[in-house]
Amino acid sequence: MPFPVHRMRRLRATEPLRRLVRETALEPADLVLPLFVTEGRSVRNPISSMPGNFQLSIDELLKECSECVDLGLGGVILFGIPAHKDESASEAYREDGVVQRAVRALKDRYPQLVVITDVCNCEYTSHGHCGKVVGNDVDNDATLEWLAASAVSHARSGADIVAPSDMMDGRVAAIRRALDNAGFSRTPILSYAAKYASVFYGPFREAAESAPQFGDRRSYQMDPPNAREAMREIALDIEEGADMIMVKPAMPYLDILRMARDRFDVPLAAYQVSGEFSMIKAAAANGWLDETRAMMESLTAIRRAGADVILTYFAREAARLTLGA
């Protein structure tokens, strides 16, 4: 009989032993910090539903990123909050838009920092949807032109990676073609390939001021019960030219993350979204969970499921912990 020859507890007895045989490692370079950039100077608006996160003007953004560089984070991803919104999302692809100026400022100050830009329209449209609205629906093909223009303007500003999050069909091909034609054939695309119509985005919509003014986004974001469909979405985006793919949200979709890891041999990202972050924060504030342990356990689970890169609002806190800072 295996017992007592095989005693699984032997290698769990002490922290040094557990560390020695640990299967999944979490490093600062695996983590990307989402940041919200807005107009003005000396602006640091707290986001009530996301404790410790802020809408930042560009000067404050530069201060915020100093520690990101020191900690060796994998990078940051920028979401813009423009001063003006309209039905054509014109601020999204304006050459001197808030994200474009933020990218230039960041690359000038911290050239070694990987800067990713979210390519979408919901923060820039007056109606809060991710594209051109015709009737009561988003016109898929008309929206592709806006997305391509945004991606090119971000690349021209110095973005290291562009990340379309809109879930329009054909957007990766449209962006790849536009980047190549504009001389940015070396700019990678990180596609939000499997982005679900999730309730866990709620706090983000406060942060980005991007809640839809009518209806919802279920006609273009994925239906949560579907897994095989996610594999088709990912395969199509890779075929269209995506260099990296993303599953969003992370924790409720670890099965999708594992399916993607087993099936696709490209860099895989997962987004621990605002609702995941805020739930841990709220539970910790009420004394129901140990925040540090919950943070690290959730991030480790995402990594273990197959993510190479994790976008998380815990990026700095987790990096400090892994570095012993």
Strand content: 15-25%
The CATH superfamily label reads Aldolase class I
CATH-assigned fold name: TIM Barrel
Main CATH class: Alpha Beta
Distance between the termini: 46 Å
Determine the number of helices (DSSP H or I, runs of at least 4 residues).
11
CATH architecture: Alpha-Beta Barrel
What is the element layout, followed by pairings?
Layout: H1 15-20, E1 31-38, E2 44-46, E3 54-56, H2 58-71, E4 75-81, H3 98-109, E5 115-119, E6 133-134, E7 137-138, H4 140-157, E8 161-164, H5 171-181, E9 190-195, H6 202-208, H7 228-240, E10 244-248, H8 254-263, E11 268-272, H9 274-285, H10 291-305, E12 309-312, H11 315-323
Parallel strand pairs: 1-3, 1-4, 1-12, 4-5, 5-8, 9-10, 10-11, 11-12
Antiparallel strand pairs: 2-3, 6-7
Helix pairs in contact: 2-3, 3-4, 4-5
Describe this entry's structure for a reader.
The protein is 39% helix and 17% strand. With 325 residues, the chain is an alpha/beta fold. The strands form 2 sheets. Strands 1, 2, 3, 4, 5, 8, 9, 10, 11 and 12 form a 10-stranded mixed β-sheet that branches. A hairpin with a 2-residue loop joins strand 6 and strand 7. Helix 2 crosses helix 3 (98-109) and helix 3 runs parallel beside helix 4. The protein is globular.
